[in-house]
């Protein structure tokens, strides 16, 4: 489905938060990993934001 990475980028005294979403497919989709359209990204984002909301 996807992997979510987050962190802080620091440069010249400034700190910028970032979020990177890497779409990956199932092992059965090796020829076209992550090539399933916008719905996968939407599901990854909703799952991530739900975790953020419930942990606060």
Automatic annotation (TrEMBL):
Pfam families: Chitin_synth_2 (PF03142)
Protein name: Chitin synthase-domain-containing protein
């Amino acid at each position: 489905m996807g992997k979510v990475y987050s962190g802080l980028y620091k440069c010249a005294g400034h700190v910028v938060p970032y979020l990177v979403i890497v779409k990956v497919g199932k092992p059965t989709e090796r020829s076209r990993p992550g090539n399933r359209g916008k719905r996968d990204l939407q599901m990854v984002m909703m799952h991530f934001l739900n975790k953020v909301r419930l942990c606060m």
